[in-house]
Every structure is written in structure tokens, then in C-alpha cells.
Design goal:
Helix content: 10-25%
CATH architecture of the largest domain: Sandwich
Distance between the termini: 40 Å
Number of helices: 3
CATH class of the largest domain: Mainly Beta
Strand content: 35-45%
Shape: elongated
Oligomer: single chain
Length: 157
């Protein structure tokens, strides 16, 4: 009798902190709806739940001990980015700056301008999330260097 497919064999070269849902989908997408694949799906579901439990706070809430402020000083005529590491997802809580800056969501090729900051006011966001593939780009054309402060909470590791 042939051995049942095993998701652990298919992912054995992947470290747990590098594992993504896409990896799990790739490991199981070629399986057929057959009873000998139940173990494969069960293993995939177990890993998915372990990732969810280990990388997120219940119900997508911010992880309290993983909140902070990221600051970037941007020279006149320059740009900077604020981007999560690895597979992290950050919920942006507020943005402020020491001068008027253009802040965009950026995917590495195309940007979408969110705000032109007003150095006197902070901007709060109820549901703005950034990832390693869609992050903040900050552009400065004020004539002087300026600092942008972004308050965030991690919602997924």
C-alpha cells in the first residue's frame, strides 16, 4: 500500500517562522478528494491553526506588547519607507510629522497617496494595515529634512 501524502514531508525545508498560508496551499493544492488525503488536509489545518494562534491575537486585535512608534527622518527631495519585517502585518494607528509630507501606500512599483500631512496635526486611521508587500512610502519636498512618526500595533507575525 502506498504511503499517504504528508504535508510535513512537503514542507520539511521550510522554517516555521517563514511558513505562510501560501506555502500550506501549495503543499495541498495538488491533492484529490480521496479518503487517503484526509491526513494531508488534517495536517494542513493543524499547521494553519498553529500559525493563526502563534502569530495573531484573538479576533485580529492588536498584540498589546508589540505596539510602538516607527520614526523616519527624510531629507528634502528624498523618500523613505516604513515596512513590516517577514510576514508581519501592522495596523497603523496614527501618523504625525514635523513638516508637510506626502505619505502613500506603496507596493514597490505603484503608490497611492493617502495623505499630505499637516505638521501641526496628527492623522488617525481606524483600519489601515501595512504588510511587507504593501507599505508606507514617505516623500519630502518641504525644503528641509522632516521626521515622520507612525504609531502601529502588530496584528500578525
Amino acid at each position: 500500500m502506498p504511503k499517504s501524502p504528508d504535508v510535513y514531508d512537503r514542507l520539511k525545508s521550510t522554517k516555521l517562522d517563514e511558513l505562510t498560508v501560501s506555502n500550506l496551499n501549495d503543499a495541498t493544492k495538488e491533492s484529490f478528494i480521496e479518503s487517503n488525503n484526509v491526513q494531508l488536509w488534517s495536517q494542513s489545518i493543524t499547521l494553519d491553526r498553529a500559525l493563526d494562534a502563534g502569530r495573531t491575537f484573538p479576533h485580529g486585535l492588536p498584540i498589546p506588547e508589540l505596539c510602538g512608534v516607527e520614526s523616519e527622518t527624510v531629507a528634502n527631495g528624498a523618500s523613505a519607507t516604513i515596512k513590516p519585517d517577514g510576514n508581519e502585518i501592522w495596523r497603523i494607528m496614527a501618523v504625525s510629522s514635523t513638516a508637510d509630507l506626502a505619505i502613500s501606500l506603496f507596493d514597490g512599483a505603484t503608490g497611492y497617496c493617502l495623505i499630505q500631512t499637516d505638521s501641526l496635526l496628527g492623522v488617525t486611521y481606524p483600519d489601515l494595515y501595512i504588510t511587507p508587500t504593501l507599505y508606507l512610502s514617505i516623500s519630502n519636498g518641504t525644503g528641509d529634512s522632516a521626521t515622520c512618526n507612525v504609531a502601529y500595533c502588530k496584528v500578525s507575525l
